[in-house]
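Ligand-bound model needed. uridine-5'-diphosphate-glucuronic acid.
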Amino acid sequence: MPQQVKVTIIGSGYVGLVAAACFAELGHQVCCVDKDTQKIDGLRAGQIPIHEASLPELLNRHRGTNLTFTHDIREATREADVIFVAVGTPQSSSGSADLSYIDAVASEIARSVSGYKVIVEKSTVPVFTSDWIGRVLMRNGVPRSGFDVASNPEFLREGTAVNDFLVPDRIVVGGDSERAIEWLRRLYEPLTSGEYYSRPNALFSAQHRIKHAPPLLITSTKAAELIKHASNAFLAMKISFINNVANVCEAAGADVDEVAAGMGLDARIGSRFLTPGIGYGGSCFPKDVAAFRYVSEQLGVNFDLLREVEAVNQKQQENFVRKVASALWTLRGKRIGVLGLAFKGGTDDIRDSPAISIVQSLLQKGCEITAFDPAASERARQMLPPASNMRYAADAYAAAENADALMILTDWDVFASLDLGRLRRLLHHPIILDGRNLFDPDVMAAACFDYLSVGRPPVYAATAESAYASGPHRAADKQSPIGEMVAPLVLQSGPSSR
Ligand code: NAD
Ligand code: UGA
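Prediction:
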């Protein structure tokens, strides 16, 4: 058996809680801390504060045995070998990362610890943060020999967080002391040796046995901090790139799926993160792109490329709202069903969700929205100010009922298997605006929808009979030489008669 490590994780949010459950799953003794006493009481009582696949199973396995919860940092850190910091690092008004939560935690750790500790940045932080944490500890009386600060950036994605943690592409450990690196090496040993995957009760064991043991990359602390920011910025850039390619495809009458497939087959490019949509969102890409640009500029390096990534992302949401307007002619009073409020499928997280921004924009334009999300409706209800034109539906079909159009704003798998015939019968006008390209346009044509997606030729089937009397078809079937006038997106009937 691998050696057990005593781990404390400060911050029990999307990252801290998943990391805690997974370290416990690996066999370590884990204490999870949060200043939110309600959250801690709930976790102790068996409640699960976030929607994340496999997390309930892991918490049930380890709660009360090798996974405990407390709001008392002093109690939690006393016995720990390794202390992870997993608190939030939100964006400040300048674009830089707001490190006040990290600063506060460093001071609290300093007041609590006695004896050597490895303090590990799990939060996403700008380069040089480890130096600052060290300074705070020493200012608060911890001798230099009493700690090391290391960086172990987290690359999990919400919705697949447990899988990503236990079967990562790589594990990055940044440290400037062999002692600190050794503790982290020991902590991840069950994964890096492949031993975990051969345990009879391991999650994800069968398909990952032996050959998928992840590499452990050891770097300087600064390099590890930079790897995290650079990776998120690069992925965001990839999404903005494909979104702009999608816009070119729309203008040219080509299909972005075909273009992305052709690009992705080049191993240097890769097929992942080439799905166009309504722009990236979430609590990380937007703030991390801004923070990386900010810290680069502070270091005297111009990173205007990232400004462009942000600008394309912003425009992508606006493009979609324009597409809705082009499909419905006028917006005031239009009833729109919305599928999806979370920033991506598989999570209840609505932080910086493009779906929420689009809904807010349409509410301001006087639309009546009825929204459904399999997990995020409650959070949206708490965040969005109550409004007479904003309602929440119990399921996808109820969101579609009597709507002038249905928008798909989050890539939940369940949306892709909805009964299209039933949807068509429920909608007042069978128009679907798909911001996530969940459906095949040919299928939508056959199901007699007007179907507008991202970067793919629109399908006009249901409401433009007079213009397209020969029946449903994809607009790309029409050849359009460069330079010819571009036709309006959809020919539409007037406002709803209701
Ligand atoms: P979160 O907001 O879900 O959780 C942060 C938690 O820290 C909260 O529960 C909060 O109450 C707690 N906290 C704040 N100050 C505290 C203190 N002084 N003592 C104890 N607890 C305290 O945030 P998150 O999404 O888990 O992100 C945390 C960090 O991880 C961020 O830097 C983020 O960029 C990074 N990250 C997030 C993800 C993700 O998918 N969410 C992935 C990789 C990295
Ligand atoms: C992202 C990174 O993928 C993780 O590696 C990282 O750990 C995390 O940020 C973080 O630092 O917090 P996450 O935000 O959970 O993970 O989700 P992603 O799957 O990356 O999606 C981010 C956004 O991009 C979502 O709005 C998603 O819909 C969008 N996206 C993603 C696209 O529009 N197209 C794609 O091809 C992929």
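The first helix runs from residue 14 to 26.
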